[in-house]
Amino acid sequence: MLFDKFQTMADFQAELAEKEVKPFGAVTEKFLSPTQGIVGGYEVILAGTNNYLGLAYEPSCIEAARKAAEQWGTGTTGSRLANGSFIGHQLLEQELADFYGVSHAITFTTGYSATMGMCATLAGPGDVILLDADSHASIYAGVKLSGADIIRFKHSNPDDLAKRLRRLGDRTSNTLIVVEGIYSMLGDVAPLKEIAAVKREYGGYLFVDEAHSLGVLGATGRGAAEAAGVEEDVDFLAGTFSKSLGSTGGYCVSQHADLDIIRYCIHAYIFTASASPSVVASTRQALKLLREQPELRVKLWLNANQLYAALKEMGLPPGPDISPVVAVELEDRDQAIRCWNALMEAGVYVNLVIPPASPSTNFLLRCSVSAAHTSEQIDTIISAFAKLIKNGQISSRQAS
Ligand code: PMP
Predict the structure, then answer these.
(1) Distance 170 CA to ligand 1 centre (A)
(2) Would you list the DSSP string of 38-53?
């Protein structure tokens, strides 16, 4: 039967319902502040959003969105290729190109469609895509659609990438290498310096998804490529507006003029309605703040360091690098669910991640830190994890 394949999910959801926990799709009923809300009936600190710079609730971004809705209406009702290109979309693209110091930028309605659309279109039948094995679902979706030959290399392993490029010989001139800046599940940073060196040696085109690193890494917040000093080696840099910029949408920038032609070939760009004027306006304002207020990034890193150091100190295993994504990996599903519930009861909302959110991750209690968190709120998050240890719900022996 058509629905047989959904039975495992139905059983899992029924099991959760029996335990009266709702970690997936938990409904936020109210915002009390940029970092506090009522979620699933609990008053909690929001420690599982990707609101890295705290701009999702920023008054000037809200005001920009309000004004744009009044002036331009609530939606564009059409694709960028037809009636859905407003002056705001064009200005946002110019501002992104200016921010990255490149000549070309495209914006998309979601971050997912940006990475999926670019990967699906840049490479085609006869080409090769070499992608990091731990790539985001949007990358896997695009790569599958592309029709290119797909080769995975070991996660963040430049030697494995080099080995596979070497085997490709002349085909490297038709090869797209796809990596991310900060990986979304464990918060580890890609070794872009080494990856760029491999690309320089063997050839190929480098595509970097900076979804979790825009506004987070780099001297001016451009991301992991800026931090690694390899922006010149990146052919296509994509990202999302839904994390540091607190809205929705995605983008791709490039120094290749071909990007302007490619835009007319991307189905995820031409066959979908463009972003609403209010979304474009708040994104533009958030990008302005990202550029003008580097102190947001400084505060974000203070918070990230505070949480990461404390969890490590108590013997929990956060990911390999300090970053605003601080995830504790667990082996057991029921334990992960129990811990998530106990954190909610202690007033802390984090993301519960169940495999296969990314190919090599386990069960995760994934926190994402914001510049808007106060140091006291980070302390409360730390105390909630300490309580899990005290109550025997997590053993600090699980430290890596
Ligand atoms: N790329 C990566 C690496 C992501 O983590 C995400 C979102 N989690 C996306 C793309 C998609 O972005 P959005 O949610 O803005 O569509």
Answers:
(1) 33
(2) EETTEEEEE-BS--TT
Which residue's CA lies nearest to atom 12 of ligand 1? 111
Does 211 sit in the ligand 1 pocket, CB within 6 Å?
yes
Q: Are 364 and 295 in contact (CB under 8 A)?
A: no
Look at 65-79, 236-250, 350-364 and tell me which has the smallest mean pLDDT.
Answer: 350-364
Distance (Å, whole) CA 163 – CA 161? 5
Domains 4-57+294-390 and 76-275 share a fold: no
For residue 366 and ligand 1, the question of a CB distance below 6 A is answered with no
Rounded distance from Cα 277 to ligand 1 centre (Å) = 21
Predicted pLDDT at 358: 56
310 CB under 6 A from ligand 1?
no
- The CATH-assigned architecture of domain 4-57+294-390 is Alpha-Beta Complex (3.90)
User: What is the structure's pLDDT at 339?
Assistant: 94
Nearest-atom index, ligand 1, CA of 241? 15
Q: How confident is the model at residue 234 (pLDDT cuts 50, 70, 90)?
A: very high
Token pair 């302390």 is at which residue? 379
Q: Is the CB of 136 under 6 A from ligand 1?
A: yes
Centre of ligand 1 from the C-alpha of residue 183, in Å: 10
Q: Whose CA is nearest to atom 1 of ligand 1?
A: 211
Q: Find tokens 């690098």 and name the residue.
A: 321
Ligand 1 atom, smallest distance to 249 CA: 15
Tens of pLDDT, residues 113-141: 999 999 999 999 999 999 999 999 999 99
Mean pLDDT along residues 13-23: 77
Instruction: Give the start-to-end residue ranges of the domains of the chain.
Output: 4-57+294-390, 76-275
Ligand 1 within 6 A of CB of 115: yes
- Give the H/E segment covering residue 357: none
pLDDT for the residue numbered 400? 42
Tokens at residue 130, please? Answer: 């070499």
Q: 196: which 2 tokens?
A: 């760029």
- CATH architecture for residues 76-275: 3-Layer(aba) Sandwich (3.40)
- Please write the tens of the pLDDT for every residue from 370-390: 999 999 999 999 999 999 999
